[in-house]
């Protein structure tokens, strides 16, 4: 198919959904209306989301990987040489994903076809290689080395910059956020992983053990290692995994070439006498070890190193090697100049000394500024590099094998061997993504559960999955620190959206307006720093290093400055004018006397309005241009009106929440306050009036709500899909709802709720439903379940076939085949009942025979039988061919469900309840207008839950109904309660939302006023039909002959230990006997009274007599136990006696 | 006891009637048909094809409520119940479309049909006496005359929107004459049933039978049948000046007014919605008493379209009468 040309589509018309938000007339706001910066600055948020999208972090990361990182990996593993032929070389010149050197795009199977046909959405990886063929050097372009799974909506995806109409042609939903992969037909997400930042010093203290330690995790392309500077008995040591024992810090510094004790003191402590007192003791140990020179120190370290090498090195060389490559591995040493490394270790020691002197000078591991987020791109790059290296190794081995042959007839062409292995990269990538196991030998990384199947339960659940962040902490550990809400999460991570239970606080979600950075080049930044007057650290005198502010680039000191404030402001000026990337952060840490610059990837940041002299730089004119489409969000960045701050820089800024808080010292202004919440928590109306755990509960439940999933929901064939028949957009919405498109793909209905007690079937949060509402379609949903059948081909050329339908003597199909068509497949629209067949498959009986001895094929019927308590309808039948050329049949079965007793419902405030009773229309209370509630909710649900937001939702919703408007319940804003009450009063209702109701049963007035109005209710996926289960008799387990377990196996209902205790306590011994044995696994055995062992057929095999045999009934499990004991040489003997002695 | 239900700030008082024998020694309150005939009153406020608004005065709550309940759930009407699909390639699933068709109110006199005997086999169940057959056969095609720049699917395609009016009556047997004057049509022709795109088609047949609202809401002949009690406003102390103006504002237009003395007075309590706004303001405390007349029911019956609203009410009366007669003949009452 022809690819949509990305150039023809202007960026402006990229996403019609967001365009609506940016239209001059939107939600009642007209072009002529006065623009108020305080009220309208929130328009920056849709502008941000239009540019960035909801899952931009994934897309950016993947784009970076494909466009930049791949090239770096190729460069790092550029050349393949042969051990045999020194003349031979092969060099990778370029790598491209998806298009050839002449710009031609490779043809891709569209994503939806991949989903349906169980294929992988991928595109070829092309490399250009240069190699020697005989005497000549050949350049070969566009060699395919494998296929790369493509992230949907990334810049390699065919959906990139596709207009809504193009999306429709491709059967894609324009609201689908993308950011996931399709591997073997399943949608897989690589969750964002949270980690402690790499290559940064973290100082920690254990006050009980009196230990202070500074640690740094060095991470480079080749290896990962951790270096510690620790205190032990008040002395400071360096610790590293590949050095056998702790090395005194003075020895290490001497080994790094700082031989003078004075200089060591200067580097570590500066002029501070209290630091000097703390550190002085360390010189003694070095002196005791008689280490005075660099050589002595290196040899000392050399003896401690525990590495296994092929060739032996001398002790000195070992020491040099250790300092140069293993310790602080991320700093590379050139020409044996250890100065930089010495400074780094000295700085670590300095931090330790500071922390000893003042225990408050430690770092917080849980501080978001010390975290980095690892995204799909980074993980894919690790994986690709690993596979690529393996690919090259195999390639090289093959080349060597060929070149080794002494007399080759023809000239060797390396290209001929390359294609042989091209599958490794493809399958390696596919397997890793589909299983989620990331095992990389280089880093000894063995991570399971990196990828997850994208949950399509509801639109929100899919969206929520894309913003989810999982932490590396162990779930079982009982520590509160990493789980607690960190103040530094403000605006970056959602404060409400986290699961309950074991993963609480460890799994987080991104807030609405965040961005995650990708790696940026360090070197240009370094140059800029020096140009701005930073003194190069290699040139700075050791004595003055602690006098001035140190300038750190990604944790490594690169120089000092005497004027930190000026430097920082000049640097920021460069960033605001677009001279350096907007994602580079710079901040001053006056405690550490340091200016930190960060360019690394994985930092969370968010945009803020720049304020100077108490005046926000974004003015009404800018906002008008934004609404007119003259300005884009990126222009705000370029004009220096808005900038991104990461957590560290945010901590160094003074941010006003509202315009009224502006003053002279303020540096930034928030764009919108509701962005502290994420996409999922943004659905809750008036969340700022709720008790906080209720919002958290709703975040979990919003993902279980049945609704519309995507525009292409009827074209999808998923394992299980729940859809609501008549979803409605909420009466009370939030700005977030509009931004994420929940009003277009809603999951719930506006129910008229009466808060009163009724019938007694409403205790414990149960709800009373109106039968007439159900008749008219309230809460109706459908389930769609997929069944996949593969018609296998066997090696002996036989294959599975589909039989037709069988007919009875009248020519009518037999009952089992009633849903089938003449082709043996279920007919679309037919009803299938339990026991009926919908794919009449047969397998050959001689599939394992050899092709030579093969006889005429006989077929055995192996039909796909429908088994469920309720019948289904056949919705779709798809027949296709999968990747491996086998016929693939997918049958989609649909069930239409009307709410019934026990179905679960929930409002948007963490208030769930099951349907307790369904009441007919005439019995329900009614108001003056004759309005009858859809749902009656018990008022006891309110006092302990304190969900005031729900009450306000009701009043706003009622006002909206009367006014003909949709009201807002946006967090920290929304329609005001006073205004809503006024609308109620103007329409002849009571201000409080309480109405006078008449009982439907007696017809009299109720003696209390009833809180009555619309509340948005969600139907949750837990439905009685999927859970109901009963059994009188049924299957038993083979081994124990006890009833099977679980509903899926038609299992028994267990009378457990506690129930057993009750029966014992009551003394109902016969009941106990019946429940535990007779109804379970009663078994008649022949017991020999003499020897006490079990015989059979009236014969004791050990006594060789039938004389003393007694028949008795025991549980089969007991018999099994006796036999197992016998098998391990223990003879359990039964001693029999009468219960009632004669 | 007064027959005024007290509407107070946070509660409703005196909501049950006490005029039954044995409640108090002072009054007998025994049932007296003559007295009832004298006091009972029916006033029709408004009446049109679809809606009636009338008052029942001096009747017990139980009787008024019985009428309401019977109108909702026991007056029979005709609705599509069995839908047979021949073809349906629209996006709507068969069940959903069948449900939608079922909810369409039909203009058919329920007295023309008899009840379906569900004990019979499906093949014999439906006759021309008890079943009305409606069919829907539509196919969406492109409109060749559509203007090029048009984006409206209704212009671009033919039969893009399927409405209730597209349901066609298929008279069976003697129905041809029976329904010659009043062919069965949807009461509201503009109910959207489905949307189609070129190439999609729907072909189905619906069997419409008699049923009651107790079985399914679609058989209910009313969209709403309810009553409210007549509001009662009593000014106990004169309200004058600005307070009087404010007092008037507390009620919907026309309920209260200010007379030439500057005193507030009650014009027409019937128009009040009993929003209880007056009770919110301190200045009216103790000066006004809100209430509702317990035995004055303002009925509002809105027909779904099959029958006129008054007919529905009369039927409810007849059903109640039959019930009473049945009870009378029961051995327990003799």
From TrEMBL, chain A:
Its EC number is 2.7.7.6. CDD domains: RNA_pol_B_RPB2. One of its GO terms (biological process) is DNA-templated transcription initiation. It catalyses: RNA(n) + a ribonucleoside 5'-triphosphate = RNA(n+1) + diphosphate. It is an enzyme of class 2 (transferase). It is found in: Nucleus. Residues 680-1049 form the DNA-directed RNA polymerase subunit 2 hybrid-binding domain. Its main location: nucleus. The keyword Ubl conjugation does not apply. Component of the RNA polymerase III (Pol III) complex consisting of 17 subunits. This is DNA-directed RNA polymerase subunit beta. It comes from Kluyveromyces dobzhanskii CBS 2104.
From TrEMBL, chain B:
Its main location: nucleus. Residues 51-330 form the DNA-directed RNA polymerase RpoA/D/Rpb3-type domain. Signal peptide: none annotated. GO terms for cellular component: RNA polymerase I complex; RNA polymerase III complex. One of its GO terms (biological process) is transcription elongation by RNA polymerase I. This is DNA-directed RNA polymerases I and III subunit RPAC1. Belongs to the archaeal Rpo3/eukaryotic RPB3 RNA polymerase subunit family. Pfam families: RNA_pol_A_bac (PF01000), RNA_pol_L (PF01193). The lineage of its organism: Eukaryota, Fungi, Dikarya, Ascomycota, Saccharomycotina. Keywords: DNA-directed RNA polymerase, Nucleus, Transcription. One of its GO terms (molecular function) is protein dimerization activity. It comes from Kluyveromyces dobzhanskii CBS 2104. The keyword Lyase does not apply. It is found in: Nucleus. The keyword Chloroplast does not apply.
């Amino acid at each position: 198919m022809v690819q949509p040309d990305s150039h023809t589509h202007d960026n402006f018309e990229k996403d019609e959904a967001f365009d609506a938000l940016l239209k001059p007339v939107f939600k009642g706001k007209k072009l002529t209306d006065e623009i108020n910066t305080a009220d309208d600055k929130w328009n920056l948020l849709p502008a941000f989301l239009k540019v960035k999208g909801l899952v931009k972090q994934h897309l950016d990361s993947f784009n970076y990987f494909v466009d930049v990182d791949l090239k770096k990996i190729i460069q790092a593993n550029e050349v393949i040489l042969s051990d045999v032929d020194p003349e031979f070389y092969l060099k990778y010149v370029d790598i491209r994903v998806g298009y050839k050197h002449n710009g031609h795009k490779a043809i891709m199977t569209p994503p939806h076809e991949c989903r349906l046909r169980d294929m992988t959405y991928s595109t070829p990886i092309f490399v250009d290689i240069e190699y020697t063929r005989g005497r000549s050097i050949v350049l070969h372009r566009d060699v395919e080395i494998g296929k790369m799974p493509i992230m949907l909506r990334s810049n390699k995806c065919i959906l990139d910059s596709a207009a809504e109409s193009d999306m429709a042609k491709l059967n894609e939903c324009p609201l689908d956020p993308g950011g996931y992969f399709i591997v073997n037909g399943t949608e897989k997400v690589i969750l964002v992983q949270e980690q402690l930042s790499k290559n940064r010093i973290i100082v920690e203290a254990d006050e009980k053990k009196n230990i202070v330690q500074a640690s740094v995790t060095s991470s480079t392309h080749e290896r990962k290692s951790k270096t510690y500077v620790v205190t032990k008995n008040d002395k400071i040591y360096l610790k590293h995994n590949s050095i056998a024992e702790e090395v005194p810090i003075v020895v290490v510094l001497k080994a790094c070439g700082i031989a003078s004790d004075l200089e060591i003191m200067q580097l570590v402590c500066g002029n501070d006498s209290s630091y000097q007192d703390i550190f002085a003791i360390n010189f003694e140990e070095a002196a005791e070890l008689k280490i005075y020179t660099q050589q002595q120190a290196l040899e000392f370290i050399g003896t401690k190193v525990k590495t296994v090498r092929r060739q032996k090195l001398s002790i000195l060389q070992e020491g040099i090697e250790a300092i140069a490559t293993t310790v602080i591995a991320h700093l590379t040493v050139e020409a044996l100049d250890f100065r930089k490394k010495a400074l780094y270790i000295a700085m670590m020691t300095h931090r330790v000394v500071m922390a000893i002197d003042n225990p408050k000078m430690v770092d917080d591991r849980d501080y978001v500024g010390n975290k980095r987020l690892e995204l799909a791109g980074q993980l894919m790059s690790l994986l690709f590099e690993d596979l690529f290296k393996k690919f090259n190794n195999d390639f090289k081995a093959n080349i060597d094998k060929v070149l080794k042959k002494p007399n080759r007839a023809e000239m060797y062409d390396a290209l001929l061997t390359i294609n042989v292995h091209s599958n490794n990269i493809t399958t390696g990538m596919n397997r890793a993504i589909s299983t989620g196991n990331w095992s990389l030998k280089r880093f000894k990384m063995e991570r399971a559960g990196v990828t997850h199947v994208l949950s399509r339960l509801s639109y929100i659940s899919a969206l929520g999955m894309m913003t989810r962040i999982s932490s590396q902490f162990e779930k079982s550990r009982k520590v509160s620190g990493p789980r607690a809400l960190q103040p530094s999460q403000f605006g970056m991570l959602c404060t409400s959206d986290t699961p309950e239970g074991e993963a609480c606080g460890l799994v987080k979600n991104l807030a609405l307006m965040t961005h995650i950075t990708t790696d940026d080049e360090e070197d240009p930044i370094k140059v800029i720093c020096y140009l701005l007057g930073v003194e190069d650290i290699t040139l700075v005198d050791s004595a003055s290093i602690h006098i001035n502010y140190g300038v750190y680039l990604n944790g490594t000191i690169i120089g000092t400055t005497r004027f930190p404030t000026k430097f920082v402001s000049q640097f920021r000026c460069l960033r605001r004018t677009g001279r350096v990337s907007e994602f580079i952060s710079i901040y001053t840490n006056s405690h550490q006397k340091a200016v930190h610059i960060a360019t690394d990837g994985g930092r969370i940041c968010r945009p803020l309005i720049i304020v100077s002299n108490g005046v926000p730089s974004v003015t009404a004119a800018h906002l008008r241009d934004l609404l007119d489409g003259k300005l884009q969000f990126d222009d705000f960045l370029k004009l220096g009106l808005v900038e991104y701050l990461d957590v560290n820089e945010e901590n160094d800024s003074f941010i006003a929440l509202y315009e009224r808080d502006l003053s002279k010292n303020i540096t930034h202004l928030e764009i919108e306050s509701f962005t502290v919440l994420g996409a999922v928590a943004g659905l809750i109306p008036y969340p700022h009036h709720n008790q906080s755990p209720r919002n958290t509960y709703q975040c979990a439940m919003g993902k279980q709500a049945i609704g519309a999933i995507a525009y292409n929901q009827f074209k999808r064939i998923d394992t299980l899909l729940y859809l609501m028949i008549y979803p409605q957009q909420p009466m009370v919405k939030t700005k977030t709802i509009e931004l994420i498109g929940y009003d277009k793909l809603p999951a719930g209905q506006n129910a008229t709720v009466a808060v009163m007690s009724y019938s007694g079937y409403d205790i414990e949060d149960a709800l009373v439903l109106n039968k007439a509402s159900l008749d008219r379609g309230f809460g109706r949903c459908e389930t769609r379940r997929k069944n996949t059948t593969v018609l296998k081909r066997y090696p002996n050329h036989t294959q599975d076939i589909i039989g037709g339908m069988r007919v009875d003597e009248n020519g009518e199909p037999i009952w089992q085949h009633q849903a089938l068509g003449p082709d043996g497949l279920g007919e679309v629209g037919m009803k299938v009942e339990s026991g009926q067949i919908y794919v009449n498959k047969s397998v050959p009986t001689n599939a394992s025979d050899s092709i030579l001895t093969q006889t005429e094929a006989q077929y055995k019927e192996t039909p796909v039988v429908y088994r469920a308590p309720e019948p289904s309808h056949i919705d779709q039948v798809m027949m296709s061919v999968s990747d491996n050329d086998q016929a693939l049949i997918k049958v989609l079965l649909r069930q239409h469900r009307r709410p019934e007793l026990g179905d679960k419902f929930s409002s948007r405030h963490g208030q769930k309840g099951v349907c307790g009773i369904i009441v007919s229309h005439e019995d329900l209370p009614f108001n003056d207008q004759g309005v009858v509630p859809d749902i009656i909710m018990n008022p006891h649900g309110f006092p302990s839950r304190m969900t005031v937001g729900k009450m306000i939702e009701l009043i706003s919703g009622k006002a909206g109904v009367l006014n003909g408007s949709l009201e807002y319940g946006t967090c920290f804003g929304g329609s005001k309660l006073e205004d809503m009450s006024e609308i109620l009063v103007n329409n002849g209702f009571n201000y409080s939302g309480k109405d006078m109701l008449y009982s439907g049963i007696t017809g009299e007035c109720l003696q209390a006023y009833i809180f009555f109005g619309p509340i948005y209710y969600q139907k949750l996926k837990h439905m009685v039909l999927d859970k109901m289960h009963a059994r009188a008799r049924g299957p038993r387990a083979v081994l124990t002959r006890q009833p099977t377990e679980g509903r899926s196996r038609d299992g028994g209902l267990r009378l457990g230990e506690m129930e057993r205790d009750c029966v014992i306590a009551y003394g109902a011994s016969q009941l106990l006997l019946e429940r535990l044995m007779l109804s379970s696994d009663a078994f008649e055995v022949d017991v020999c009274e003499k020897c006490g062992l079990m015989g059979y057929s009236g014969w004791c095999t050990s006594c060789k007599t039938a004389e003393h045999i007694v028949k008795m009934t025991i549980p089969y499990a007991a018999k099994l136990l006796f036999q197992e004991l016998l098998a391990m040489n223990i003879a359990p003997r039964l001693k029999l006696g009468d219960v009632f002695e004669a | 006891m007064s027959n005024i239900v007290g509407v107070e700030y946070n509660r409703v008082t005196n909501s049950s009637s006490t005029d039954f024998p044995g409640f108090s020694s002072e009054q007998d309150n025994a049932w007296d048909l003559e007295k009832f005939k004298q006091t009972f009153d029916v006033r029709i406020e408004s009446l049109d094809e679809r809606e009636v608004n009338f008052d029942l005065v001096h009747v017990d709550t139980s009787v008024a409520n019985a009428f309401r309940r019977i109108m909702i759930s026991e007056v029979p009407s005709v609705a599509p119940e069995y839908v047979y699909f021949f073809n349906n390639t629209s996006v709507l699933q068969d069940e959903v479309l069948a449900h939608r068709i079922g909810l369409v109110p039909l203009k058919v006199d329920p007295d023309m049909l008899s009840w379906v005997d569900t004990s019979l086999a499906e093949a014999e169940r439906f006759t021309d006496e008890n079943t009305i057959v409606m069919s829907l056969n539509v196919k969406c095609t492109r409109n060749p005359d559509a203007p090029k720049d048009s984006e409206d699917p209704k212009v671009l395609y033919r039969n893009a929107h399927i409405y209730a009016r597209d349901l066609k009556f298929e008279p069976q047997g003697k129905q041809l004459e029976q329904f010659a004057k009043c062919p069965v049509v949807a009461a509201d022709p503009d109910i959207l049933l489905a949307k189609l795109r070129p190439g999609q088609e729907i072909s189905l047949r619906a069997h419409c039978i008699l049923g009651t609202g107790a079985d399914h809401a679609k058989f209910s002949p009313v969209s709403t049948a309810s009553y409210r009690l007549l509001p009662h406003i009593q000014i106990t102390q004169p309200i004058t000046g600005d307070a009087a103006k404010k007092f008037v504002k507390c009620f919907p237009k026309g309920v209260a007014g200010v007379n030439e003395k500057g005193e507030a007075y009650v014009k027409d309590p019937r128009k009040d919605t009993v929003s209880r706004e007056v009770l919110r303001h301190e200045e009216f405390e103790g000066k006004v008493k809100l209430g509702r007349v317990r035995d004055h029911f303002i009925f509002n019956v809105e027909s779904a379209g099959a029958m006129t609203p008054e007919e529905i009410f009369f039927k409810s009366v007849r059903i109640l009468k039959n019930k009473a007669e049945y009870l009378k003949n029961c051995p327990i009452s003799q």
